[in-house]
Design a protein that fits this description.
There is one protein chain. The chain has 88 residues and is of the alpha+beta class. It has one domain. The protein is built from two helices and three strands; from the N terminus they run H-H-E-E-E. The chain has a three-stranded antiparallel sheet with strand order 1-2-3, with no helix packed on it. The longest helix is centred in the first third of the chain and has 16 residues. The chain is elongated. The two termini are 37 Å apart.
Length: 88
């Protein structure tokens, strides 16, 4: 039994030495935060609502008021800031 466990251990360790990763996949893995030059911000202006949003999942932004305004043109904020947080 001990020999089988030892053989299995060497087999698993040996196979991991030959594991290969595509260079393009490795570049994505190395870049953990993305690039700031691709960050965009815009205003959604429809019906009676005006909302500032970003492509980083952030909706509204406190220093830039009114970033979430209802009714439009009144200066009354309805939101301070919301973002999606995903943790693994």
């Amino acid at each position: 039994m001990k020999n089988k466990i030892t053989l299995l251990l060497f087999l698993v360790c040996g196979l991991t030495l030959f594991a290969q990763v595509d260079p393009q996949v490795q570049l994505y893995r190395d870049d953990e935060r993305g690039n700031f030059r691709y960050e965009r911000e815009s205003i959604m202006d429809g019906n009676l609502v005006r909302t500032l949003f970003k492509n980083t999942t952030e909706i509204a932004h406190w220093p830039y008021q009114p970033s979430g305004e209802w009714p439009k043109g009144s200066g009354h904020p309805y939101i301070d800031g919301i973002t999606v947080l995903i943790a693994a």
